[in-house]
Write a structure and sequence with these properties.
Elements (H helix, E strand, L loop, with lengths): L1 E8 L2 E7 L9 H8 L9 E6 L9 E6 L5 E2 L3 H15 L3 E6 L2 E7 L5 E7 L25 E4 L3 E6 L8 H9 L9 E9 L2 E8 L3 E3 L3 H13 L6 E6 L2 E7 L4 E6 L2 E8 L2
Parallel strand pairs: 2-3, 4-6, 10-11, 12-14
Antiparallel strand pairs: 1-2, 1-17, 3-4, 4-5, 6-7, 7-8, 8-16, 9-10, 11-12, 12-13, 14-15, 15-16
Length: about 270
């Protein structure tokens, strides 16, 4: 039997398996089966934890996979959940979690939330990546999205009213557009105030989720680039709120809840 943890950040939920002491080498087929909400455990992303490389500052390596078995570069909500597990394990308020997108430092705040430094927003067309050179502030796609990378590709559309948007139609069409060779997460944003955004995200490989941490970061970055917000805002999603700041130094900070729902065992 294999132990797992079910956790969520603002409703964005994860199955977490600790492979630090026992590598499992789970296949994409196994990940898809475990992520299935009807016949498996169910999750938006499947997380495995691995030992850190020697002579590094990282506390562990986090691998992120989508419900379809594909790999994701970064996940802010999962990073907070893993940081909270590490805090319970070692009592240190500061952790460093390594992903394929880089090291993500996390800090437990006095109010119990976790704050993650998601690194710099990458704004070049090749960084996203896009299929060809262009201005990432205005993509030649329906809805005039802006794009950036937060360790994974994001396109953000700004709309007058989210209630009028057919997200389940537009989301998958844009996710798979030829302009995105690695597909993309598609964010739909309604600006409520210069420091307040309403966001829904169609995540690549996962579909419509209750929250998306890297998507909230991309929403704030692209909104500020468009002159719609300040450099700090609260991003409201279906599952809860995240506080995002794009610092003058170019780093994107994300603060929000990290909750362990339950622990269990499963036969792989």
């Amino acid at each position: 039997m294999t132990r797992f943890i079910k956790a969520h950040g603002a409703g964005n939920d994860f199955v977490i398996i600790d492979e630090r002491s026992r590598p499992l080498d789970l296949s994409a087929e196994t990940v898809r089966a475990l992520a299935d909400r009807r016949t498996g455990i169910g999750c938006d992303q499947f997380i495995t934890l691995h030992p850190p490389p020697p002579n590094t500052d990282a506390d562990l390596v986090m691998r992120i996979r989508n419900p379809d078995g594909s790999e994701a570069g970064a996940c802010g909500n999962a990073t907070r959940c893993v940081a909270e597990l590490l805090f319970e394990e070692n009592g240190r308020p500061y952790q460093v979690i390594r992903t394929v997108a880089g090291d993500l430092p996390a800090e437990r705040l006095a109010d119990g939330r976790q704050r993650v430094d998601m690194g710099p927003a990458r704004l070049g067309w090749a960084d996203v990546p896009l299929a060809r050179a262009m201005d990432t502030l205005h993509l030649p796609l329906p809805g005039d999205p802006a794009a950036c990378s937060m360790g994974n590709p994001h396109a953000t559309l700004f709309v007058p009213d989210l209630a009028d948007v057919a997200i389940t139609t537009l989301g998958p069409a844009l996710e798979h557009d030829a302009l995105f060779p690695d597909r993309a997460n598609i964010g739909f944003v309604q600006v409520l105030a210069p420091d307040r955004l309403r966001l829904r995200v169609w995540e690549r490989g996962a579909g419509l989720t209750l929250a998306c941490g890297s998507g909230a970061c991309a929403a704030l970055v692209n909104a500020h680039r468009r002159g719609l917000t300040e450099r700090r805002a609260t991003v409201l999603m279906d599952g809860g709120a995240l506080d995002i700041e794009w610092t003058q130094a170019g780093r994107v900070l994300m603060a929000g809840p990290a909750v362990t729902s339950f622990r269990g065992t499963i036969e792989l």
